[in-house]
Specification:
Helix content is 32%, strand content 20%. By secondary structure, the chain is an alpha+beta fold. An eight-stranded antiparallel beta barrel has the order 5-6-13-14-15-16-17-18. A three-stranded antiparallel β-sheet has the order 10-12-11, with no helix packed on it. Strands 1-2 form a two-stranded antiparallel sheet. Strand 11 and strand 12 form a beta hairpin. Helix 5 crosses helix 6, helix 9 packs parallel to helix 13 and helix 11 runs antiparallel to helix 13. The longest helix is centred in the N-terminal third of the chain and has 20 residues. The radius of gyration is 25 Å and the shape is globular. The relative contact order is 0.12.
């Protein structure tokens, strides 16, 4: 339409955007995906003037990318628009971004500008908004085919560039609020007094991210805050996706199979066979976003954009740790962590880790070979819910508003955990039993309106979340708790009415996870048990891993705590720490992990 507008002044005046928002909204619908915006914000986003505004923003971004100048003054704005487009992508958006050249554009940006202006950071790359967005866009546009087509040298260059974000967690935050906190927001339990140690080389620790966001005119919202996405999460996805292109070598001295190992007299010996390493190579560590073509008739529940809903809501709701996150939105979809997960852990060299921790300047020889070992990671997880009128197990730690017991995945030390593998999980703590029930997708839980304290307080099972219902949010923080992730949503709004969402209360107060390594994987990589819970504020998952039973090979394995997010519905990405009884304010051995859920549910 731009060439037509340029033909003469009269045509330009007739077809000008202020007079023809309905026309430009139709153009938006034909070019870009629109289901995600209505689902995440409200149907009001589809009013013609809102779509017309969004069309001008997205079109300007595509124009900037087509100019192919990574030093263009409009790159930051183009990256924000591209990030929004990829977060809403159901096929059309990605098609237009790739046609404009975004994959090559963002690849060139990372190679040329990621370390820009790093003098003040002593050689370390900045966690600036433009770098954060560039890393996420590099991940969003990555495909297995594109990575396999790269030369080894170019793949290794990207790995080297993103490595600091991956393995220096005391410099780059890996969560929207430090994982030592479970009860959020912080004003409710800390009175604003946050304990932090001062690292001579890096400053305060733990790392608090507050207000790192962009305020944008986004569809019908004239001042929507969108948080800057975490650079470290994107960097981990990029690192592992590039590294998994190369298969792990198979030592020929290993037994061929487990049966072969038994025949050789190694029945009780823990260690991999050639078959176990073949299994590692057959499954990816992280799974790329789907790049399939769009289908306007596609079921929205299965759309590509719906897999990113929790990630998007984290960015719009979890910007300020001192503020409540929105109850209208989910940050962890029920069942997201269940199933068999496979991935890798990065284990840093102790001496190299200590050197990085103590020195200000980024080392010149900052390479994988000098810093890291890779270890396979397997876990099979099950999900349990505490349903009102049951009470959640208390948090652990010092109960001081700072240490909520992350060293035991937010669960008190000494708690006895029992699972009947069918319907219930029980925590025994101080002569009291806390009961959680198994979550089964598609099945109803034990919630009863007659006994649910939330329903009794409201006088109805219907929960209405209003756009500006601060009073309801205040009541929520005082103990009337409903987490409504797996329910139908009815939207009732008009041009001048307040947007609201009505859900049926399901009574879920808390989410716990338990699991173990399957026997087959335990024989290869050691047997472990896992338990933990999910932080409601932003969906952060914390799990403690302990050796399953005494064994000579378990000496030195220790107790590790994993914390991270389910990204895109399929990848579990975060950091692990060797905590034990270490104060959360003190940095300890820590690095990254990434996993993807395997499609086979039993092995």
């Amino acid at each position: 339409i731009v060439p037509l507008l340029q033909t003469c002044k009269q045509i330009h005046d007739i077809l000008a955007l202020p007079k023809n928002s309905h026309l430009y909204s139709r153009i938006f619908r034909s070019r870009f995906d629109s289901a995600a915006s209505a689902r995440r914000l409200c149907s009001r986003t589809h009013h013609s003037r809102n779509l017309a505004h969004q069309l001008t923003w997205y079109s300007a971004a595509l124009k900037c990318i087509r100019r192919a100048n990574v030093y263009d003054n409009d790159v930051l704005d183009a990256f924000w628009a591209s990030f929004a487009l990829m977060s809403e992508n159901d096929g059309k958006n990605r098609h237009h971004l790739e046609a404009a050249g975004l994959p090559d554009f963002v690849d060139e940006f990372v190679r040329k500008r990621l370390y820009e202006d790093n003098v003040d950071t002593h050689g370390w790359p900045n966690e600036s908004p433009i770098n954060c967005l560039a890393l996420w866009l590099l991940w969003f546009t990555s495909t297995e085919e594109r990575l396999k087509a790269e030369t080894t040298a170019r793949r290794n260059e990207i790995i080297r560039l993103v490595l600091p974000f991956v393995i220096v967690p005391f410099h780059y935050p890996s969560a929207h609020a430090p994982h030592n906190h479970f009860a959020m927001p912080l004003t409710d339990n800390s009175d604003g007094h946050l304990r932090q140690s001062i690292l001579p080389a890096y400053g305060a620790f733990p790392l608090y991210r507050s207000g790192i966001a962009r305020t944008a005119h986004f569809y019908d919202r004239t001042n929507l805050e969108i948080g800057t996405p975490l650079a470290s999460t994107a960097a981990k996805l990029i690192y592992f996706s590039h590294r998994q292109v190369t298969s792990i070598g198979i030592p020929i001295h290993l037994p061929l199979t487990r049966q072969h190992a038994i025949q050789l007299g190694c029945r009780d010996q823990i260690g991999p066979t050639q078959e176990d390493i073949h299994e590692l190579n057959q499954h990816n560590v992280v799974r790329h976003l789907p790049a399939n073509a769009w289908d306007d008739a596609n079921d929205d529940a299965l759309s590509a954009s719906s897999q990113l809903d929790d990630d998007w809501y984290r960015l719009t709701d979890c910007i300020h740790p001192m503020e409540k996150s929105s109850l209208k939105n989910t940050h962890y979809t029920h069942g997201s962590a269940t199933g068999l997960w496979q991935g890798r852990i990065l284990v840093p060299n102790d001496n190299a880790f200590a050197t990085i921790l103590q020195h200000v300047q980024m080392p010149e020889e900052f390479t994988e070979q000098q810093l890291l070992n890779h270890t396979p990671l397997f876990m099979r997880l099950r999900e349990y819910h505490c349903v009102d009128p049951q009470d959640p197990v208390p948090t652990g730690g010092a109960n001081d508003g700072f240490d909520d017991g992350i060293s035991n995945a937010w669960i008190p030390k000494g708690v006895e955990v029992t699972e009947d593998m069918v319907s219930t999980l029980k925590f025994q703590h101080h002569d009291r039993t806390y009961t959680y029930e198994a979550y089964h997708p598609g099945s109803t839980n034990s919630h009863d309106e007659a006994t649910c304290r939330g329903c009794q307080f409201r006088g109805t099972c219907d929960v209405v979340y209003r756009e500006h219902d601060d009073q309801f949010l205040a009541e929520r923080s005082q103990g009337v708790v409903e987490n409504d992730a797996d329910v139908d949503v009815d939207v009732d709004e008009s041009e001048d009415e307040e947007y609201c969402v009505t859900r049926k209360c399901n009574g879920v107060l808390d989410i716990a996870l338990v699991g173990e390594t399957d026997f087959k994987h335990g024989q290869a990589w050691n047997h472990y048990r896992f338990y933990g819970r999910v932080r409601e504020w932003d969906g952060l998952v914390a799990l403690v891993r302990i050796p399953a039973h005494p064994h000579p090979t378990t000496q030195g394995l220790g107790v590790w705590v994993f914390s991270g997010y389910i990204v895109g519905g399929n990848n579990f990405v975060g950091t692990w720490r060797e905590l034990g009884d270490v104060d959360p304010v003190v940095p300890t051995l820590e690095s990254s992990f990434a996993m993807t859920r395997r499609e086979d549910v039993h092995s």
